[in-house]
Amino acid sequence: MTEGLEVTAPADGAETHGAEIPGDSFMLESWGWTSNPDACEPKIHALASLLNLEAPGPIGRVTYQSKGNALVIAGRDESRARTAALALAAQLHVTLLAPRRIEGSGLTAWAGSIRSLTGYLGEFTATLDALDTGTGAAAKPVEAKFDLVLDFGDASHFAMRQPPQGYYRAPADEARLGAMLEEMRGAVGEFEKPRYFAYRENICAHSRSGIEGCNACIEICSTQAISPDGDHVKVDPHLCMGCGACSTVCPSGAMSYQFPRVADRGAQMKQLLSAYRVAGGQTPCLVFHNSTDGRDLLAAAATEGPGLPAHALPMDAWHVAAVGLDLLLPAIAFGARQVVVLAYQYGAGLMELLTPTNGALMAVTAAAGVKYGDWLKFAVPLFGALLALSAVAIVVAIALRI
């Protein structure tokens, strides 16, 4: 589903760039994020042709069930935590945990501290030290189950870059906290998401006969959803957020991305580039972007300026970390002159396009008859330019105090 974009009205006398309704993101998206449709007819034709493709086959689903049993961890911010807990208590069953018991209407007041916190939406397990529910402190650690967690503590209780769904770190800004509380109120019931990955353990290179081999997927996973499991690995689908970085760095192809499948994405690229050529387009450039900040960036570019060039064909990805060699090189084979990925993080995933331990890279370059040294001569200057550009952007951001 595509969300609308709210755009501030242009100042009096400001120049527009072709779109009669420049704030209409649906129209701009159908034009390929180019503000002047007259200049990009082949691109518009190519994007519209994607509707002729058959819908991808169904993929597995992952289910969450939440009954609205919420834990609010006060930390040292007892006043804000109590106010937030009271605001949630009308819709949720709220337990307020603090160093001392803090009573409140509709609240369950506990005293104690968090030893550990694991789980995800609907299945959090908190291990509590010195738990006092009003009858004195427990002598041993006590486990308690919760569906949602709101944390006012000084540090997060999850070490991963992306904490699990259902866990909320309370922001300092009151407006953002209010929006977070509203989201928590709606997190009751049964929820589904796609099963983003497929795993074939018979070709996994993690370990053999107790000798450790590849840990690439474990190391790059931003949600710690992947862990060792003997000679193989196991993935918790409830923790997986679908970035796809594991499939990008997997040297054996054991881990593959499913949202969409590589074959489905390949069919889209082939259709898009073929229709673009038939419509008279030249020198096509594929632009992979995600559906959140990447899409917002393209919408702003088309609203406030000319947007993407007429030969730049956008492709929406759930997460750009899933865009690896299995998509980049076929795009060139299908006729793209260039491929651009709007990326904001996951430098480790991009660096796998250089490392000689990446089996996918070695296989593809060998099949194409390209020596590894020649590949490095081509790729290293591009990565160096990206590094230099990133450094300049950081310096400018610091200078502007962004």
Description:
Strand 11 and strand 12 (211-212) form a beta hairpin. The longest helix is centred in the C-terminal third of the chain and has 28 residues, at 372-399. The protein has three domains: 25-56 and 261-370, no CATH class; 63-192, FAD/NAD(P)-binding domain (3-Layer(bba) Sandwich), CATH 3.50.50; 195-257, Alpha-Beta Plaits. The strands form six sheets. Strands 6-5-4-3-2-7-8 form a seven-stranded mixed β-sheet, covered by helices on one side. The chain has a three-stranded parallel β-sheet with strand order 17-16-18, with helices on both faces. A two-stranded antiparallel ribbon has the order 1-9. It has helices spanning 25-30, 41-49, 78-89, 174-185, 216-220, 245-249, 262-278, 293-304, 325-333, 347-351, 359-367, 372-399, and strands at 61-66, 69-73, 93-98, 107-118, 124-132, 142-146, 148-151, 167-169, 189-194, 197-199, 207-208, 211-212, 226-229, 232-235, 255-257, 285-290, 312-317, 338-341. With 402 residues, it is α/β, with parallel strands linked by helices.
